[in-house]
Every structure is written in structure tokens, then in C-alpha cells.
Specification:
Blueprint lengths: L1 E10 L2 E11 L2 E6 L6 H8 L7 E6 L2 E2 H4 L1 H4 L2 E4 L11 H11 L4 H14 L15 H12 L6 E5 L7 H14 L4 E6 L2 H5 L4 E6 L2 E6 L1 H6 L5 E6 L1 H10 L1 E8 L2 E7 L9 E2 L4 H15 L1
Parallel strand pairs: 3-8, 3-9, 6-7, 7-8
Antiparallel strand pairs: 1-2, 1-4, 4-5, 9-10, 11-13, 11-14, 12-13
The protein binds adenosine-5'-triphosphate and magnesium ion.
Length: 290
């Protein structure tokens, strides 16, 4: 078990991560949050690249900072701005990372072949990475992160820049890999975590706002998500006063989906909350600013 015990990170007076408590066991955890929420900072602390200002991270009961090399051996990390070597082929790159991780010749070769297959890059193994598409680079990034068959896999925005088909492919790959390990992935795309994460952690302003499975999180909004057909004037008013999750022009007016504790209009009907509604509930204002 990976325990994050009251962990904070301050930059000057500013809390990038504030008093986070989490206990992670095998499975997929989706860290969902807007830009600047603190996702990367939290992940870098988990990977011992950054020291917490307060609190402690423990794996199997031992503080990770003290465990040092022993802990890093069981860790795999895909950084958000993952640097590859453009002149290397995919195969050369993986062999290079394998060498850095202290893997021996024949084993490293076999593992490289196995991983290229796992991330569906076996045909591109000899191709230079600089000629890869964004999705291919991401998949290569995932391959390097799992080279050492880690018990803890930390993926920082692994789906950034992937097209829908590659997103789906990636999700399936993660589900497969998560059976025997802790996978923590960050994203601001709701559908990435909706289908594969056992637990979703919603992070905002350095704090975990809420955590749980899809049903638990959507359950929090039960009876608070409404659909109603409105005139332009009513819709404009509603957009000022409520968090609007969706707006669609229809015959006879504008169909709004909005969040409200009380019935917002006589013709409003309660609908089942979706994870996207939950996201809007926490990040609505910020999402509008974007
Ligand atoms: N080294 C640093 N020095 C000062 N402030 C920092 C530093 N690193 C991060 N921050 C600040 O901490 C906050 C959290 O940053 P972080 O990169 O963890 O967010 P994030 O959730 O990963 O965002 P994004 O979705 O954009 O990747 C931001 O306000 C950022 O400006
Ligand atoms: Mg980040």
C-alpha cells in the first residue's frame, strides 16, 4: 500500500499541494483536476523528485525518501513533459533507458521487444522517434515507464494529444497493466478516467476535494442536476446564476443542463448526474474562464 500522509508542498507562501491524505492499493486511480491543481507536484513527490514540505509518503510502511533506490526500483514514471531522444529509434531508446535502470543485455533486449509489442509499436521499433506521431510518442513513454515491471506506475497526463482511437487503445492498455499494480494517472479529461479508474480523485487548489468510484461521485449530485427548456432571456439569466453543464439550441428554445439544489424552473426535470456534471460542479467557474 502507498500511503500519502498529510502531504503538502509549499513554494514560498503558496501551497501547490495542501494536506493530502490518500491510501492507494492495487488498481487505477484517476487524478482529475484543472490546470494548476497540483497534480504534477503531487506526482513528483510520489516519485521522490520533490520533497514534501509537510507530511510523509510511505510504501509498504516504509518512508519512500529513506527507501531510496529500493523504492525507485518498483516505481515507473511517465513525466508530463516526457523527453525522448529524437535521433534514437524506439528500440534504441528503450534499450538506453533499460541500461540506465541497470538491466542486463539479453534481458533488456527481450523486454524491449515484449514492450514494443505491448504498446503496438513493434513495426515502428526501428523508426526514429522524431518521426513518431504524438500518440506513438506517448505509447513509447508508457513502455519506458513499465520497463522494470513496476509495482507503482505514475502517469502524468498520458493521454494529452491523443486522438479518440488512441485514447481507447490507451485505456485498454492501462486496464491490462493495472491488475497487479497501483496505477495513478492524471488528466483533465473526464472520459479518460470514467471507464478505467476504480477510484477518481478530484483535485483543486492543491486539495483532494472528493474521491471515490463513479457511482459515489455522481451520487453526491443526485437530485441536483436539471434539464430545462428556456427562452434566450431565461437561459442568459440561468447562466449567470447556476453552473451550466450543457447548453443546446433546440426547437422552441435552449435546453440547459444545470446544477441547482432547488428546482430552477417550473418545467425543469431532474436527470441522472454524469461524471462530467461532477467535474463542472467543482470546476465550473474555472472551465468558463478557459
Ligand atoms: N517549482 C515551482 N515553483 C513555484 N511554483 C510552482 C512550482 N511548480 C509548480 N508550481 C505552482 O504550483 C501549482 C500547481 O502546479 P502543478 O504543475 O502541480 O499543477 P498541475 O495540476 O499539474 O497542472 P497542469 O494540469 O497544468 O499540468 C501551480 O500554481 C504552479 O504554478
Ligand atoms: Mg501537470
Amino acid at each position: 500500500m502507498l500511503e500519502i500522509d498529510g502531504v503538502s508542498k509549499k513554494f514560498g507562501d503558496f501551497y501547490a499541494v495542501e494536506h493530502v491524505h490518500l491510501q492507494l492499493e492495487k488498481g487505477v486511480y484517476g487524478l482529475l483536476g484543472a490546470n494548476g491543481a497540483g497534480k504534477t507536484t503531487l506526482m513528483r513527490m510520489i516519485c521522490t523528485l520533490l520533497n514534501p514540505t509537510e507530511g510523509e509518503i510511505r510504501y509498504e510502511g516504509a518512508p519512500v525518501l529513506k527507501a531510496g533506490e529500493g523504492y525507485r526500483k518498483v516505481l515507473g514514471y511517465l513525466p508530463q513533459d516526457f523527453g525522448y531522444y529524437p535521433q534514437f529509434s524506439a528500440e534504441e531508446y528503450l534499450l538506453y533507458i533499460a541500461a540506465l535502470k541497470g538491466m542486463k543485455g539479453n534481458y533488456a533486449k527481450a523486454r524491449t521487444r515484449e514492450l514494443l509489442q505491448l504498446v503496438s509499436l513493434e513495426k515502428a521499433g526501428k523508426k526514429k522517434v522524431k518521426n513518431f506521431s504524438g500518440g506513438m510518442k506517448r505509447r513509447l513513454g508508457i513502455a519506458q515507464a513499465v520497463l522494470n515491471d513496476p509495482e507503482i506506475l505514475v502517469l502524468d497526463e498520458p493521454t494529452a494529444g491523443l486522438d479518440p482511437k488512441e485514447r481507447i487503445r490507451f485505456r485498454n492498455l492501462i486496464s491490462e497493466m493495472a491488475e497487479e499494480r497501483i496505477v495513478l494517472l492524471s488528466t483533465h479529461i473526464v472520459s479518460d478516467v470514467e471507464n478505467i479508474a476504480n477510484k477518481i480523485l478530484i483535485m483543486k487548489n492543491g486539495k483532494i476535494q472528493t474521491a471515490g468510484g463513479v457511482e459515489r461521485l455522481t451520487g453526491e449530485l443526485e437530485g441536483m442536476v436539471w434539464k430545462c427548456l428556456m427562452t434566450h432571456e431565461e437561459a442568459a439569466y440561468a447562466e449567470e446564476h447556476y453552473t451550466v453543464c450543457n447548453r443546446k439550441k433546440e426547437e422552441g428554445g435552449i435546453m440547459l443542463t444545470l446544477i441547482s439544489k432547488e428546482k430552477p424552473a417550473v418545467n425543469a426535470k431532474v436527470v441522472m448526474p454524469s461524471l462530467e456534471d461532477v467535474y463542472m460542479y467543482y470546476f465550473g467557474e474555472e472551465a468558463e474562464e478557459e
